[in-house]
């Protein structure tokens, strides 16, 4: 229950700080959000062993598949993510899977030096599906 509360806090902080965005690929829907870790509540950061800082970013992702009635159900996926800053520096964003009850989501940390706009490229692989590539940008302010 405590971890579920932390997840809800993480999601609510993320939703308030930056609107959650998603991309659809047939019956798959990938939700994602990027923010600086100083926006996390201290207890949430402790729970997930995330360092709170204005120069550290957190990428959250989840992959849902629509069931027969059109409701998104979390499914496991392999996520490969790269980030590029305005100076064209490329870095990998290792994603770690978190499972809590029926929920499955992925967390990845990266460096950021606001103000900057980071460009993310994510490859989403789900068994039985072709790999899906998605690109998105996130602006970070001082």
What fraction strand?
Answer: over 45%
Gross CATH architecture? Sandwich
Q: The CATH topology is what?
A: Immunoglobulin-like
Question: Mind telling me the CATH superfamily name?
Answer: Domain of unknown function DUF4426
Order of helices and strands: HEEHEEEEEEEE
Protein structure class: alpha+beta
User: Percent helix among the residues?
Assistant: 10-25%
Please give the alpha-carbon distance between the first and last residues. 35 Å
What is the rounded Rg?
15 Å
Average residue pLDDT? 89
Count of discrete structural domains: 1
How large is the count of helical segments? 2
Give an overview in words.
The chain is an alpha+beta fold and 142 residues long. It has 2 helices and 10 strands. The strands form 2 sheets. Strands 1, 2, 3, 4, 7 and 8 form a 6-stranded antiparallel β-sheet that branches. A 4-stranded antiparallel β-sheet has the order 6-5-9-10, with no helix packed on it. A hairpin with a 2-residue loop joins strand 7 and strand 8. The protein starts with a helix and ends with a strand. The model is unreliable at 1-18 (pLDDT under 50).
């Amino acid at each position: 229950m405590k971890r579920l509360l932390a997840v809800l806090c993480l999601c609510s902080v993320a939703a308030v700080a930056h609107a959650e965005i998603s991309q659809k690929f047939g019956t798959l829907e990938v939700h994602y959000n990027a923010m600086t870790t100083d926006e996390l509540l201290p207890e949430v950061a402790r729970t997930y062993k995330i360092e709170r800082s204005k120069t550290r970013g957190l990428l959250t992702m989840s992959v849902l598949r629509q069931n027969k009635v059109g409701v998104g159900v979390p499914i496991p996926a392999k996520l490969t993510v790269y980030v590029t800053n305005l100076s064209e520096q490329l870095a990998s964003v290792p994603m770690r899977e978190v499972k809590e009850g029926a929920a499955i989501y992925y967390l990845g940390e990266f460096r950021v030096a606001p103000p900057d706009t980071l460009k993310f490229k994510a490859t989403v692989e789900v068994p039985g599906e072709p790999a899906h590539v998605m690109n998105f940008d996130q602006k970070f302010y001082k």
